[in-house]
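Now for one record.
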Amino acid sequence: MPCNSEYMEASYDEKESREVCKHIIYLYGKLGIPIPKSVRNASESYYGDARRLGDYEKALMNKLQDMSEKEIDSIVYNAKSREARALANWYEDVMESLQDEVKRARRESELKKKAESLLSKMRAEEVEILKNYLKDN
């Protein structure tokens, strides 16, 4: 009977932390910044370090946002480097996701304002009926 080792597969966050750490190593190396031992260890581990994924993502984004346009073009958008292309894809995905979050927040804010405006025009009895309806459904 074959052995089932699915439980040993790295999770999405573990894989993502490993990849983000590889991006940090590439970027810090190009910028001459010392690479933290925890980043190097996570990049070399099959399971990465999912507990620190948020910290790694934040550090990478902060460094990318601190860079000049010229640095971004020469380091991140270097078409001759596989590591640069992988970092560029990650960066663009994150930026797209952030833009989507901003759009979603704006839509929610607009809907909330419209709802508040409508509620302010309703009588107390109508508001109570609506609240009860929404609570039940």
In short: The chain has one domain: 9-111. The radius of gyration is 23 Å.
